Amino acid sequence: MAKVLVVDDNEAVRTAIRLALKGQGHQALGASTPEEGLALAAAEQPDVAIVDMNFTRDTTSGAEGIELLRGLRAAAAELPVVMITAWGTVERAVEAMKLGAADYLTKPWENARLLGVVETQLRLRAARRDLDRARAAGVAPRREALGAGSDFAGVVGRSPAMVEVLRLVADVAPTEATILLTGESGTGKGLFAEVIHRNSARRERGLVKVHVGALPGTLFEAELFGHVRGAFTDAREAREGRFAAADGGTIFLDEIGTLGPTEQVKLLRVLQEGEFEPVGSDKTRKVDVRVLAATNTDLAAAMRDGRFREDLYYRLNVVEVQVPPLRARGQDVAVLAERFLERFADKNRREVEGFSQEAYAALQAYRWPGNVRELENAVERAVILCRGPTVGIEHLPAQVRGSASASAPASGQPTTVGPGAPWPSSPASLPSTPASPRGAPASSSSSPSSPSSPSSPTVPSPSPAPAHGAADAAESGGGTLDEMEREMIARAMRQHGGIVSHVAVALGLSRAALYRRLDRYGLRDLAGSGRAG
User: How far is CA 528 from CA 429, 463, 499, in A?
Assistant: First the structure.
């Protein structure tokens, strides 16, 4: 049971919120003045606060709510504060979010929306506490620690940067929070939108994807909200819009930063009120839709420059998930390259088994400005051009070949890396989380900091962590990379009850690659009969 502080001068409002919270098993702590609210917060230490903007009769400036927010934040900076306001003071609510408010509600509110906001803030606060405790204890983030309750199928990566993103996604996906996915082009924001939807309560309904950057301004309204017959030239039949199609489910708005001023206003209304009118109709339609948005532009800077509305920015940016660039996921390059090699070898019917030392060194050294999408294209090109079992450096694009000198292969290493052969590495350089059974070395690059709203929880850049792979080897008396790989796979098979599909996801491998390793290490008997996925 969570404690929720409710500060509002209207007793009817406090009672309504108290009853809604009680139905979810939460305790409401009521206060009618800012002074009472501050005293109650100090005495009871609530988990979330819901605060009105105005308390004095005939006052509508919102200044009282802003001052109360400042006081609550000064006393307990980690306390999520949700502002509640009438439409006339939405601008003040946006100001409150700049000062650290977690979210805002408008009067009259819907209980489902209120409870969804409270649940989101409770989950986020718990997630931040868990992360702080793990960092204080010096524990490196591990994908296995995320548990079996989340479906991350399709997400390849075990680097600390990716694990922290997955940890936040696991916490916020089951909520109703609007999520803004940020990051460079090619990092996989669309994939994360699918993962969030798949792990939400709306997963049985559809995920509707809209690339808003590809919509001309003249078609934006008709595409998103639909139109009636005869609404404009060539509108011979009525057509349902994307928001109506997503009713009960999720809509993903990609490239949201490309919207013009007129489109921003139209989108804000449906986000705020959950209603719209199809083009040519005077009938209002209400929808229940969760919104995910993505951008590769700096919306905070666009907001400051006047190119993006503040109220829309804060409505979209309830939770921000920063998807890291590939250069910050160095130890994931190996497993991604292998996954792409297997896929494109099968697709193009090529007997390609792995990468040469020189090719691998170039892949690891390159900065990948195009991120995962560029790596995928580079591997596909290499597989198509390769005429033997090994992808050589000559099969890689020129810009990737040019990076090879930065990471020359050591003498005496195997000439091929890929399925059935170890990646060039030594036990001392194993990554802090097992990026790949090859033992690929972790990259020293880190994700550049990016601006974010102080009110929006984001994934912080991961701190350096001890290399537990090396530590595990020391505890077991050392061993070769093959021995360490065999033990890691055996441990994962036991943990997941021999279900190969689950183990493949946990280790970031395809099932075909995992089966090859099971055969190689004599572990086929650990794959449960009829349970191998």
Answer: 33, 38, 6
Instruction: Report how far residue 163's alpha carbon sits from residue 141's, in angstroms, rounded to the nearest whole number.
Output: 6
Place of tokens 């990259």: 443
Return the SS3 of 306. coil
Closest CA to 327 of 135, 183, 170: 183
d(CA 71, CA 76): 9
CB 85 within 8 A of CB 311: no
d(CA 418, CA 437): 10
Which of 322, 297, 329 minimizes the C-alpha distance to 459? 322
469: enclosing H helix or E strand: helix 468-475
DSSP result, 150-196: S--TT----SHHHHHHHHHHHHHTTS---EEEE--TTS-HHHHHHHH
pTM: 0.70
- 148 burial (CB, 10 Å; 0-12 / 13-18 / 19+) is exposed
CB 425 within 8 A of CB 442: no
- For the record, the structure tokens of 234 come out as 């060539």
CB atoms within 10 A of CB 216: 7
Query: Where do we find the tokens 């868990």?
Result: 130
List per-residue pLDDT tens for the chain, 533 residues long: 899 999 999 999 999 999 999 999 999 999 999 999 999 999 999 999 999 999 987 777 888 999 999 999 999 989 999 999 875 566 777 888 888 899 888 888 888 889 989 998 998 888 778 777 777 777 666 776 665 568 888 899 889 899 989 989 998 999 889 999 999 999 999 999 999 999 999 999 999 999 998 888 778 988 999 988 877 777 778 888 999 999 999 999 999 999 999 999 999 989 988 899 998 888 999 999 999 999 999 999 999 999 999 989 999 998 999 999 999 998 899 889 999 999 999 999 999 988 998 999 999 999 999 999 999 999 999 999 999 999 999 999 999 998 766 445 444 343 445 544 444 443 323 333 333 333 333 333 333 334 444 445 554 444 333 333 333 333 333 445 567 778 888 888 888 888 887 888 778 777 777 877 887 788 888 876 433 34
Structure tokens at 496: 């997941």
3-state helix, strand, coil in the chain (%, to 5): 45, 10, 40
Least Cα distance to 122 among 407, 319, 336 occurs for 319
d(CA 508, CA 332): 9
